[in-house]
Each structure stands twice: as structure tokens, then as C-alpha cells.
Please model this.
Amino acid sequence: GENVEQHPSTLSVQEGDSAVIKCTYSDSASNYFPWYKQELGKRPQLIIDIRSNVGEKKDQRIAVTLNKTAKHFSLHITETQPEDSAVYFCAAGTGGFKTIFGAGTRLFVKA
Amino acid sequence: DAGVIQSPRHEVTEMGQEVTLRCKPISGHNSLFWYRQTMMRGLELLIYFNNNVPIDDSGMPEDRFSAKMPNASFSTLKIQPSEPRDSAVYFCASTPTTGVNTEAFFGQGTRLTVV
Model:
């Protein structure tokens, strides 16, 4: 069945450094790749998404890249800040509106 | 709009008891999803509905779990009988069906503890 793998499970960076989270998906029919941020005790919220007809998208300090051939996509956060500390989930959406999430990456940004 | 509303926010119950979690999606959204979140397994899709019809329930772990969506503004997830391993945060999410995949709006979640 569909599967999304996410790495690393935990990531610790110094404030100002970059953070990269990587995901792979199994279903070649996937066409939508959102990223969600979940702060402690709160609900996941969308921070950026990319569709299969685009290879890269950027929004201020956040960027996502997609390699459909290799079936992997990545989240890049530059100039990290303490408020970036959270759990980040990648996801892959297939036809029929089914969205499968990765297991999550717990990001710690040390001041 | 108040967003996706879930109740209760917290539920503590004894093993063997029936538990019912409730969700009200955003008005106008016709896809609804139930997810379970644990430290070990992350966000697992349990079941999703489109226009009140269950489309895929392959993620429902056992027959003890059941979900219904009697109308466009209400869904329930029921566990009967509950077990300690069901302890998790259960999220409901909804999306508008526009012909393409789009952002899922999550409720605040229900933290279930089965003792």
C-alpha cells in the first residue's frame, strides 16, 4: 500500500543554521506534497505544499523540492529560529483525496 | 468559521468501556479524515469520508473501531471495547473537494487515555 518515509526522526540545529528533512513516497500516483508543522500540544498546520508539476517552491525561509523520478521530496528551513522548534510532517496525497503522512521529525533549534 | 471542532478535548476511560469521539468539519468541506497520533507511529490515517460516504477504512486497526458520518456536519469515531493501547491523540480533519488534493484543516484533537 501507500507509504511515506521521513528522515530524520529527530534533528537538532544551532540557531541560524539550516535544517533539512527528507521524505520518500511509494505511490507513483501521488500528486500533492504538503508539509505540516505541529507545535507542542497543538494541531498540525500547513506551512507549505508543492504539486507534482513543480520541482521547487519557496516561501521566505522555507523551501520544498520534489524529485518525481526518485519519488522523494525535501523541506529546507534556512536561518532557523527557536520558534521553528516543532514536529514537522511530510505527506503525500494521491487521487481520491487520500493523504498519507510520514512519521514526523522533531526539530530542536538551540539558541 | 470556527474551524474543525472536536469533542471532547480529553477523555479518560477504563479498559473495556465504549468511547465516542465527535467531529464537526468546516462548513462546505465534503471530505473528512480521522487520524490517530502516537509517538511511535506518527499520524496514521484511520478512515476518510467523501460526501458522507466512507471511501477507505483500511487504516482502521480492528473491528473494535467504527466510524460514521450521518450528515455533512457531523462524524463519530467509536471504540468498543477500549484497550490501553488505544491511548493516543485522535485528530479529525476536513478538506474541500475541489477536484484536486488540497490542505487538510485539523481539529484540536482528542487526547484519549485508556487505563
In short: The first strand of chain B starts at residue 5 and ends at 7.
